[in-house]
Amino acid sequence: MSDIAAPSFIRQDLVAERAAPVKTTGVIGFLRTRLFNSPAYVLLTIVSALLIWFTVIPALRFLFVDAVWQGHDREACLAQNAGHPVGACWPYVAAKMNQFIYGFYPDAERWRVNLVFALGAVLLLPLLIPRLPAKGLNAGLFFLAFPVLAFFLLYGGGLSGFGVSWLTGLLLAFANSLISVGDALIRVGVNAAAIHALLWPVAELIGLLNWLREQILTSRQPVWIDFTVTTIIVSALVFVLGGGVRAIRATIHTLVTFAGIGVVIALMGLDHGGLPVVDTRLWGGLLVTLVVSVTGIVASMPIGIALALGRRSTIPLIRIFSIAFIELVRGVPLITVLFFATYMLPLFLPGNLRIDGLLRALVGVALFSGAYMAEVIRGGLQAIPRGQGEAASALGLSWSKTTALVVMPQALRHVIPGLVGSFISLFKDTSLVSIVALFDLLGSLKASFADPVWATPTTAFTGFAFTGMIYFAFCFGMSRYALFVENRLNAHRRN
Q1: Mean pLDDT by 10-residue block, N- to C-terminus, for the chain (495 residues)?
Q2: Whole-number pLDDT of residue 278
Q3: Are residues 39 and 174 in the same domain?
Q4: pLDDT of residue 378
Q5: What is the pLDDT of residue 163?
Q6: Residues 6+ apart with CB under 8 A from 226
Q7: How far apart are CA 270 and CA 327, in angstroms?
Q8: CA distances from 236 to 48, 110, 209, 230, 255 (A)
Q9: How many Cβ atoms from other residues are within 10 Å of residue 430's Cβ?
Q10: Which pLDDT score is estimated for 431?
Q11: What pLDDT score does 369 carry?
Q12: Residues ≥6 apart with Cβ < 8 Å to 405
């Protein structure tokens, strides 16, 4: 049996040792797989290294290594006094920091700007943290009470018929317009009795509003009566439009918000003069940049939603108006809108009506951004299957509830990157307001170049680098937070 030969398919000698596997982890693995994996990777790595060497390294040397950190005037930032290549002139930034933040806002009143910044941060941060409670109340304070408080803190002045005065003025203008339309219909032959029957409630409303205004103006405390009536009207509208338990909760939030506004009125003395007035022509720097950008971002969302829904409407008049507005505004640059709002709009207004220049710019920016926002939101609406709306209708939901509770939340979740991209573009486009005599951050920077005390060859580069860092910090923060929200809302889709 021992002489039997082994089968031919059985190996008679030992197999040679295999080579060690290629390392794919750690620093060596990263270099091998990401930087030198193929000839194309090697070429790209070399080109990228050269770009970093000739751009990033000199920039870092200019900003930090060769920079001047101490000094009182331009002499500290001149090359002949340094004995080595001079980089960024940071004493210039420190000397002009107040101008970059406040513009020409009076020194004695800058505490008001600081208070607005602090209150805005305190109210905004809880909205951005998902786990914190009372989002409805916090949103009401930030979007309703805070703008009113910020206006009177920044601009100053007191309340003189601020509430029902303008509210009744708008209602009276609308009611008088209806009366004028009725008179025109009567003149063209429409049944006068029918027109009078339809417009009788409008005539009664005009009488009530005139009586209300007279009572307010003749009162010893017109501001508080004005404020109380405004609170009642707004709360009633919120309760009627809300419906159900949500209406009660929304009404309570509204009353709490107005109570907070009333406390602010009493503490700031807005019912008898208020704070000293600071004209908007003295505002500037980061203050104007944040005011324009935040107002544009907040106001563009409802405008964009309304235009997006209007463009999809089945009512021809609404659809044609929305399409015409969107295409007209998107067909011109922002600077054209700002020029029209700043210089041409006053020509179309009555002679005794004056609108502040900053307010005109805010309206122009909000409308311009709203038109772009409408197309982003419309793309999200088109991504929602028709079955979603049909299912909601089958459950008995109205069109408004279907849109608000079913369709719109899903559409906005789909277009978060587009929305944030529009927000970032708007934040950067606020620098264009300097062309219409508003000194934002970039405008204040350019104005600081006229100071001969800091006139050096590196002053301009230092200033633009500093403002670029500020813009990048805000834009990068918005981008990262949007990515966090997108991942959180789409967590159910992960495998």
Answers
A1: 64 77 74 82 91 90 85 78 72 91 90 91 89 81 83 74 52 66 69 70 70 60 64 73 68 79 71 75 90 91 92 90 92 88 73 74 90 93 89 87 89 89 90 83 88 86 92 93 85 56
A2: 87
A3: no
A4: 92
A5: 47
A6: 159, 161, 162, 163, 164, 165, 216
A7: 43
A8: 63, 38, 17, 10, 10
A9: 25
A10: 86
A11: 92
A12: 392, 397
User: Closest Cα to residue 196, out of 211, 209, 204, 174?
Assistant: 204
What pLDDT is stored for residue 53 in this prediction? Answer: 92
42 lies in the same domain as 119: no
How far, in Å, are 4, 125, 272 from residue 121 at the CA level? Answer: 91, 6, 29
Would you give the end-to-end CA distance of the chain in angstroms?
61
363 with 295: CB under 8 angstroms?
no
> What are the beta bridge partners of residue 178?
none
**What would the DSSP string read from start to end of 194-251?**
HHHHHHHHHHHHHHHHHHHHHHHHTSSSHHHHHHHHHHHHHHHHHHHHH-SHHHHHHH
* Domains held by the chain: number: 2
Q: Is residue 477 part of a domain?
A: no
The whole domain housing 163 covers 106-277
Q: Do 56 and 118 sit in the same domain of this protein?
A: no
Of the residues 232, 259, 277, the one at which a domain ends: 277
- Please give the angle made by the CA atoms of 440, 443 and 448, to the nearest 5 degrees: 125
285 membership: H or E segment, kind and range = strand 284-285
Query: Is 246 in the same domain as 159?
Result: yes
Q: pTM of whole model > 0.70?
A: yes
Question: Is residue 488 a part of any domain in this protein?
Answer: no
Burial of 277 (0-12, 13-18, 19+ CB in 10 A): exposed
User: 153, 112 in Cβ contact below 8 A?
Assistant: yes
60, 117: one domain: no
Do 165 and 270 fall into the same domain? yes
Residue 159 has which token pair? Answer: 């309340």
Residue 384 counted as domain residue: no
